[in-house]
User: What shape does this take?
Amino acid sequence: MELLKIQHIEKYYGSKSSLTKAIDDLSFSVGKGEFVAIMGASGSGKTTLLNCISTIDRVTAGHIFLEDTDITALKGRELGRFRREKLGFIFQDFNLLDTLTAYENIALALSIQKKPVAEIERAVDTVAQQLGITEVLKKYPYQMSGGQKQRVASARAIVTEPKLVLADEPTGALDSKSAKMLLERFSYLNTQHQATIMMVTHDSFTASYASRVIFIKDGRLFSELSRGEDSRKQFFDRIIDVVTLLGGDVSDAL
Assistant: This one.
């Protein structure tokens, strides 16, 4: 079942005298419960794509559908409601509120939706256990490690049970141990809770946790890989092969 459908989108920046095409007639779809990684060299359009899907930015042409909603046509309050109720965001720099505890950061989205206190407490407790952060719920961001902050940010993104979770370089600021722990939690949420995840990454190791990888070059679809029955190591090796074809440096994996 299709959850997200990208139809012939284009995105231009600049003026007529200096026009840059960031996305060039891009089309693909994401099924419900998929874990998809988007890879590409710097300037390939992968972050622009994520920004358009998240409605942070608007496409110049084409359409993006989430279920039956054309999100490119949303405006005003409809757009705000869509972001609150349908999307979860995970940023590389966490974007936690420094004056709130981990619990309060996670609970904020539910409070905005005016959920009952008892329901908020149950939801936060459940997601904290899933991501292994119950011990930091009373701490402020400055009291947490980078890995803990990223897992709190992930908990905040999924606590509302959004239709789609969007992650922009979620492991970019983490050490290898914290990154692996976060990616294993993503896999758990994807396989056990059917969370649909779209993750932009430059790193082949990170991408190997996804069930499918879409490669973008110069704003266009270059290639895609499905993991299928491969082990993660086998999938990683196949990803590296495509990275090589893209002309990337395997040592920094795009």
